[in-house]
Amino acid sequence: MLSYITVLLVCQLAGEVIARLTGLPIPGPVVGMLLLFVGLVIKGGIPAELEKVANSLLSHLSLLFIPAGVGVMVHLKLIAQEWLPISASLVLSTAATIAVTGWVMDRLAKRGEPKV
User: Fold this and answer.
1) What's the pTM value of the predicted model, to 2 decimals?
2) With 70 as the cut, is the pLDDT of residue 116 above it?
3) How far is CA 77 from CA 59, 71, 82, in A?
4) What secondary structure letter does DSSP report for 115?
């Protein structure tokens, strides 16, 4: 179990190093996740121990939201001052996500229909 936690952390570290050295506008953990994905594709599957580690982390996922909640509480005055742009960006980004998801699903559904 410890070895697979180490694998996850090494992937995150490698992603962070790659993102900083190349100047990519992508967060390091995302690059690390891509590295992990490529490694799992090459391996041909998810090892059982890695799945256990991932499920264990996911079962405690709510704990990872505590720092974000603290950040909201610390910056509550700033959020109150900037409520309009924050609200507008949330509504617009949600609408855009729904629209793009619907468009992609429509395209994929048409692609899977049998040709007559």
Assistant:
1) 0.62
2) no
3) 33, 11, 9
4) P
What lies within 8 Å, CB to CB, of 79 at 6+ separation is 72, 86
pLDDT at 17 over 90: yes
Angle among Cα 71, 75, 79 to the nearest 5 degrees reads 115
Confidence of residue 27 (pLDDT cuts 50, 70, 90): very high
Integer Cα distance of 57 and 29 in angstroms: 15
Cβ 28 vs Cβ 19: under 8 Å: yes
Amino acid identity for residue 55 in this structure: N
At residue 101's C-alpha, the angle toward residues 99 and 39, to 5°, is: 150
**Average pLDDT for the chain:** 93
Distance, first Cα to last Cα, the chain:
52
The residues spanned by each domain of the chain are 1-59, 63-116
Q: Where are the alpha helices (DSSP H) in 60-82?
A: 66-74, 76-81
